[in-house]
Amino acid sequence: MLDDIYKGNSGEWAELYSFLKLLGDGEFYSADRHFQILDDDKYPVCSIFRDNLNNSLLEYEIDETTKQVELKNGNDVLLSVTQVDFKEGARELLAQIKNKEKLRISVSDFLERIHKPKMKGKSSNKRDLTVKIYDSRIKKEQKLGFSVKSKLDGKATLFNSNGHSTSFLYKIKNFDQLSEADLQQMKSDANGKPMKNKTLIRFLYDRGCELEYLEADEPVFRNNLKMIDSNFDVVMANAVLYSYLTRGAKMTELVDMLIEHNPADYPLDTGHCFYEHKIRQFLSAAALGMTSASVWQGQYDATGGFIVVREDGALLCYHVYNWNDLQDYLFETTFLDQPSTGRHKYGMIEEETPDIIRLNFQVRFS
């Protein structure tokens, strides 16, 4: 049964939904920072490449004349399916994603018919869909990678936490001045559990301690950040720290705090917007190519940009052509979030190094 094979969260379902809808509609549109469609900026879809559950790479090619989608394995045409069928499959899947149901048999039958495309792309890639579009700017077809983000359920993640690979180490200054009562309270709070995360950080600051950045926990992540700027690990580590000290963790707010404290000692009196520019660069890299655990050479995997699934199911494109709009979207709609402490093992006092603490983060869309 396909119901037992196709499993995932709403973000992963959004990939499959986008795949079906793009083939059904045969086009998608750019959007502004307010998620409104720009009717004069359209991208016709020629085909989509997708692995199936048998690990065969298939091309789903649209015949604009017949309104059919041809399933091709190399040069071999396996079958043709109407675009209307893809539209109906997308519509039914959207309804089930919103209702948080499992696949109904009607959609399962359709997925079986179109050779069982995988629900999601490879987790090692930033591209979720590989789409061949007709590019009116250069008047030819282009094969591009797109990252898919969903607003259907919850807050989509732009940059995932990954254990110690995304954590920073900080020295707790004045730790030796804490009283025995303070130390005991940190070990066992009102609920009899050790303090952790934001509660612990605020407790330390209330008692005259401060956190000073030491280094990123893993050298690969530290060096990836240094690809953006030789000092960017300092910038990002302090932004993460500020997100623990304040109730607001929007990127726009954190940049204001970076400017106020200037941890990288930039010459701010020159009028250059150093911190905003560096954060925008990081968000773009995180969105289109960089991960925490793999060496990043500055190249983008999602060469087309973003496809966002809006709450009503509309597909919006933030294309790399519209670079400023793409960066505005990322900068104005993201915030730093704290992942699970139990899963990622951070944000607590450790017996071996009680005056050093690690903090972790992830970037989410608001």
Beta strands, count = 15
Please state the structural category. alpha+beta
Distance between the termini: 36 Å
Shape: elongated
The helicity comes to 25-40%
Strand portion? 25-35%
Largest sheet, strands/sense/barrel: 6 strands, mixed, barrel
The strand line-up of the biggest sheet is: 1-2-6-7-11-12
Could you walk me through the main structural features you see in this protein, from its secondary elements to its overall organization?
This protein has 366 residues and is an alpha+beta fold. The protein folds into 2 domains: 2-154, no CATH class; 159-298 and 332-365, no CATH class. It contains 11 helices and 15 strands. It has helices at residues 10-25, 83-99, 105-113, 180-187, 197-206, 219-228, 232-245, 251-261, 274-288, 323-332, 341-344; strands spanning 27-31, 37-51, 57-63, 68-73, 76-82, 129-135, 140-150, 157-159, 167-173, 210-216, 305-309, 315-319, 334-337, 356-360, 362-365. The strands form 3 sheets. The chain has a 6-stranded mixed β-barrel with strand order 1-2-6-7-11-12. Helix 7 packs across helix 8 and helix 9 packs across helix 10. The model has no long low-confidence stretch (mean pLDDT 89).
